[in-house]
Amino acid sequence: MPVLHTLRRAGAVLLLAAAALYATPAHPAAADEPGWTAEPAAGTATATRPYFYLAGAPGTVLEDRLALVNTSDRERTITLRGADAYNTADGALAVRPADGAAPATTGAGSWISFGTATTVTVPPRTRAVVPFTLTVPPASPPGDHPAAVVAAEAGHEAGIRVHLRVGGPALAALTVEDVAVRGRGGSAVVAYTLVNRGNVALAPELRIRADTLVGGAPDPSRGRTLPVELLPGQRVELTEPWPGAPALDRVRVTVTVTAPGGARAEATASRWLVPGGLAGRAGAGLLGLGATAAAALYLVRVRRPDPRPAPDVPPAAGPTTPAPHHELTGATR
User: Fold this and answer.
1) Are residues 260 and 218 both part of a single domain?
2) What's the mean pLDDT in 305-327?
3) Region 231-254: what's the mean pLDDT?
4) Is residue 154 part of a domain?
5) Can you say how many angstroms the Cα of residue 84 is from the centroid of all Cα atoms in its chain?
6) 286: DSSP letter
7) Do 56 and 102 fall within a single domain?
8) What would the pLDDT profile of 39-72 be if each residue is shown by its tens digit?
9) What's the whole-model pTM score?
10) In terms of domains, do 53 and 159 share one?
11) What three-state secondary structure class fits 161?
12) Total domain count for the chain?
């Protein structure tokens, strides 16, 4: 019987595996594959670049090359353009679309030109290298100017970052704004807004300190580098989880952000954290009443007169007759 039971279990496992294999398509990601790739052209046969890096003074013309690889068995017609890069509200990097759904490309993306090669036809199983130029206007301010090269075909787009640095003084500066504590208990978060006030991209490092009125609570963040590249002039709204937030207390959080180059900013916010429902409101009322009573008792102790009698002061030694008073009248005596 044990042998028969083991054979039955093995047969069931084989049937389930066969069913799963039959139900799973041979190429589940084939529908999502565009059949082509776009990347910066390598300078050598082995070197690869994750993005374009260009630097120059105002008025210069910079050059680079884009590689398009057709991995499919049919011809591909790919459209190329330059676009401005920016931060979304949550800090992700994005590029301006070409359909007018967002502000038009007017920054460094408009400085990119493919000449007559804005549309490229790539034969099957072929790699094409397309040169392009980036012309820095003479009056361009110094610092980082984020842009991207965008390749598109049949509704699929691939964006390659262009990190452009225009020569001149670099300024790293930022501010922290709109600090707030939201939620309660394990779902509490510290919300804040970062604004890049300088002219270079920043990799911010965050630290959040928490001070409480009654008990103690762990800091929401003891220090970490944020997974955000904050571009010049951009504003992002971020949150930091605070699973150790107190259930009933008054908290004051201090958000401190630093970045390479000497950038530093700090902001604070305070809030009563109370549980929901009648019990939470009653607890908050008692806590507030206790704080008020403690403050009143302190004031009473400070203002209460000393009940002990004042010590006797002996009279001053010397004559009791008043000293003569000399009046300045200008008359002779």
Assistant:
1) yes
2) 49
3) 94
4) yes
5) 19
6) H
7) yes
8) 999 866 557 889 999 999 999 999 999 999 999 9
9) 0.72
10) yes
11) strand
12) 2
